[in-house]
Amino acid sequence: MNRSRIIFRQTEGNRYTLPVLLNLLESCPMGEELQLDIAQSHEELARKIEEGIPTIVAYSFMTPHLKEVRSEVISIRSMLGPEDLLVAGGAHPTADPAGTLELGFDIVVVGEGERILPMVAEKWARGDLRGLPRVMRDEDPCPLELSIPASRRLRFMAPLEITRGCSHNCAYCLTPRIHRKPVRHRPLHSVRRYLEASHHMGKKVARFIAPDAFSYRDPSKGEELASIAELLRLCRDMGMERVHLGDFPSEVRPDRVRPEFLQLIATHCVNRKIVIGAQSGSDSLLERIHRGHTVKDVVKAVREVINWGFLAHVDMLFGLPGETPGDRMASLRLLDQLAAMGRVKIRAHVYLPLPGTPVFRMDPPKLEDSFVANLEELERRGVLDGDWKSQMEVQREILQWREKGLIKA
Ligand code: SF4
C-alpha cells in the first residue's frame, strides 16, 4: 500500500483526543500497515509533508484556535500533493462544517469521529474516495468502550473519558450540542482495559474526563455512588498511585456535591482540590442560561467541600449574553461571601461565543472598568485566578470572525 500515513497536528486543545483516535487506528484492520505520526508544530508538520509521502493530515480543533488553524491550512495547502487529504474534526468543525470546509479542508467529520476516521483512512489507502461526502457524520451513538486514549506505538496517553454528553443544557456550552445523543458512561470493564494499558506503559497516574464527575454511572450498576466507589477501588487494585477525581478535567456540579462522594475522594484520591462549576452569583441569570442549580447550591457545595478538608476551586463565568450589571454585582457579592469562607479559590472565565450554541449570535455585554478592577483586586489578594484577561481578547477575536463571515454557523 503506498498510501499509508496519517499525521495528526497536535495542539494544546486536542491532546486528550488524539490518543483515542490513534488507539482506534492502531487496532483497525489496516492498522499494521498505517504509519501514524504527530506534528507538534506547524514547522514540524511542513517538514513531514515535504517528504513527499502521500498523507492524511488531520486537525482537531476548537473555535478559539481558528486563527492559527486557518493560517496553517493556508500555508500547507499549497504543499500538499493530489494524493494527500486534509481532514478536520472536533468541536469547531462539528459546529461549523461549512465554514471549516471554506478554510481549505477536504473532509469535515461532524460529531464523533471514532468510526468515521478509520473508514476514511481505509478508503483513501485503497485510493477510492468515490461517493464520500465532504461532510461526514456518524448518526449512531458511539460506545465509549470502542477505544481508550492510549497509543502503544507512540506511547501517548490521555485522561480517560468516563462520561460523554451532558443531560443539562447550559446556553453557552457546546457539550450537549456536539453529543446530541443520550449521555453515555464508560463501563468499568473498559476502565480496567485503560488501567492495564497505563500499567504496561509504566504510568501510575489516573485522571478522568467527565462533565460532572459525581454523575458517573457504570451502565451495569445504574447508581452513581457504587459506580464511583468501584471505579476508585479498581484504580487502587490496578496499582495506580495517584488518582484524581473531581479536579480538572472531571469537575463537579454544585447540585451534585454530597458528603458520600467527598468521603470517597478523600479516601482514594490524591487531589486536595475540588473544582465546582458555579458560573454566576445571580439566580436570575442561572435560570436564564438553564444552569439547573441555584446560588444556594453553590454556597452549600463549597461549605461541604471545605468541611472535608479540600480546597474549593470555583469556576465563574462573566460577560454572558444577557448578563446585566445587576447580575455582575450579584456575582461579586458571591465572590466576597466565598472568599470569606477560606480555602476557596475563584477561577474566573470570560464568556467565549461558540458556534452551535443558542447564544452565539447574541452580543455579550462589555464588562465595566469598575468590575474588571474588582476582579484584579481579588487577583492581587490571591483569591482569584484564571485566564479571564486573555479570554477577553479571544472573545473579541471570535466576534470579529463571526462578523467577517469566517464562521458560518
Ligand atoms: S453542566 Fe457543564 S457540560 Fe453540562 S451543559 Fe452545563 S456547562 Fe455544559
List the main descriptive attributes of the protein structure presented here.
single chain, 409 residues, alpha/beta, Rossmann fold, TIM Barrel, 2 domains, six-stranded parallel sheet, four-stranded parallel sheet, 15 helices, globular, binds iron/sulfur cluster
Describe the 3D structure:
The protein has 409 residues and is α/β, with parallel strands linked by helices. It has 2 domains: 133 residues, Rossmann fold (3-Layer(aba) Sandwich), CATH 3.40.50; 255 residues, TIM Barrel. Helix content is 38%, strand content 17%. It is built from 15 helices and 18 strands. A hairpin with a 4-residue loop joins β7 and β8. The longest helix has 17 residues. The two termini are 38 Å apart. Iron/sulfur cluster binds next to α7.
Q: How would you sum up this structure in a few lines?
A:
This protein is of the alpha/beta class and 409 residues long. Helices cover 38% and strands 17% of the residues. Strand 7 (150-151) and strand 8 form a beta hairpin.
Provide the fold topology.
Blueprint: E1 5-9, H1 18-27, E2 35-39, H2 42-49, E3 55-60, H3 66-77, E4 85-89, H4 91-95, H5 97-102, E5 107-110, H6 116-125, E6 135-137, E7 150-151, E8 156-157, E9 160-161, E10 163-164, H7 175-178, E11 184-185, H8 188-200, E12 205-206, E13 208-209, H9 224-237, E14 242-243, H10 259-268, E15 273-279, H11 283-288, H12 295-307, E16 311-318, H13 325-340, E17 344-350, H14 369-380, E18 384-385, H15 388-404
Helix pairs in contact: 8-9, 9-10
The chain binds iron/sulfur cluster (SF4).
Iron/sulfur cluster is lined by residues 166, 168-170, 173, 175-176, 211, 253, 277.
